[in-house]
Amino acid sequence: MPLNSEIKTYPIQVMLGDIYKEINRLMKENIKDGAVPYVKETPLPQNMNIVSGYHLGDINKVLLELKASKIGAKSLKWIFGADAAFLGLELKAKENPVVAFANTIRNREETHGDAVENQLGAQTAYLLDQFTEKSIKRALSFASLDKNPDMSGNGKTEMQKKVMSQSMLRNICEYDTGFLEKDLRESKRKNVASNWKDTDVIKDVNESFKNVTEKYSATEKSIFKVLSSYFLTQSTGLKITRPLSREEKKSFIKNLYDTSNVDSPRFAQIAAESSMFTERQTHLDFSYGYVYEKSEDKSKPKIVPPKAALFERDDKHINSRSDEKTMQNIHNREREREMNITHARGL
Fold first, then answer.
1. H or E segment and range at residue 253
2. Distance between CA atoms of residues 331 and 335, nearest Å
3. Per-state percent for the chain, helix, strand, coil, to nearest 5
4. Could you tell me the pLDDT band of residue 151, with boundaries at 50, 70 and 90?
5. Cα 226 from Cα 119, distance rounded (Å)
6. Per residue in 67-92, pLDDT tens?
7. What is the reported pTM?
8. What is the domain partition of the chain in residue ranges?
9. Where are the beta strands (DSSP E) in the chain?
10. Are 56 and 79 in contact (CB under 8 A)?
11. The dihedral sign for the CA sequence 98, 104, 109, 113
């Protein structure tokens, strides 16, 4: 990606190969800089869009965290380029954006008949640490604009900035304190403990692990396990496995380098699959749905992560449990090692 101090705001189309190549590049640069995030005993809290409060998942999550490690970001707070430009945020220097990829290949209707094979829709995003402190404070000051500005002309724009700024204040505060998410994290912790006391659930977890990693090499399985442990700690605060020894860290980093130093999507696939496998471990009974407590078994969850294909999904269309037929279809796809969206992206 070319260096440019101007915020990139436009949706773009990218080729499937760009995904894993960018991940491999960032992984190798972090190894060179001694900044591999996955060997940290205390991961950064999971990412958050400071405007919407939503999280990126799967490939997008991996990209964002590798980017954060590369620039030495102190948090995983982020914002879409279009929102950053609208609020007048200013980049510290010639900063490149993270390219958040959609999950689905663009079709001819979406591209007015000009669909390109293996092409994805994507959106630019930036970490908050990439912007100057002065411009961030200015953007947050919009929250205190006049209560009822004139809604004609510039007044409408001011109101939009005010609403966005107020959301930013709430979400930044939540990210820094974790006040609202602590109950969700506690529910996940209880679910993990409960799941590992149930022999049927343990059997399901082990079978799922076998299905996901059945074509992995021994090296790839070792990477998957370390990443899964890291993502679980990041999501719940639990440390299920002991910290890696010095020699184990050296071996793990060597495996990361060997896997990402080839023109292959293997590391991207392993990272995405381990992230989603770990997320499912925090669900009640290792379920596919976003169910975190028994009381929520048949109700819509209070906090729902976004669907990366839509970037921000409509909660009205989300259920905590799918119907039986859909659940069976999902189960069958997992058996065929197509449980993750990475397969739809050609990874």
1. helix 246-260
2. 6
3. 50, 10, 40
4. low
5. 31
6. 999 999 999 999 999 999 999 999 99
7. 0.77
8. 12-177, 182-335
9. 12-15, 48-49, 77-80, 98-105, 119-127
10. no
11. positive
183 Cβ neighbours under 8 A, 6+ residues apart: none
d(CA 240, CA 281): 12
Say if CB 195 and CB 201 are below 8 A apart: yes
Chain centroid, CA 32 distance in Å = 24
| Cα first-last separation, the chain | 21
7 is written with which tokens?
Answer: 């915020």
Q: What is the 3-state secondary structure (H, E, C) of 268-324?
A: HHHHHHHHHHHHHHCCHHHCCCCCCCHHHCCCCCCCCCCCCCCCCCCHHHCCCCCCH
Residue 299 banded pLDDT, cuts 50, 70, 90 = very low
What's the token pair of residue 247? 């020699």
Q: What is the mean pLDDT of residues 168-176?
A: 95
The crossing angle, in degrees rounded to 10, of helices 246-260 and 16-33 is 150
When pLDDT is cut at 50, 70 and 90, the band that residue 293 belongs to is low
| Token couple for 283 | 């669900």
d(CA 308, CA 19): 14
Which residues have a Cβ under 8 Å from the Cβ of 225 and sit 6 or more positions away? 274
Neighbours of 314 (CB within 10 A): 9
Residue for token pair 């010095």: 246
Spatial CA neighbour of 77 closest among 47, 43, 42: 47
d(CA 340, CA 347): 10
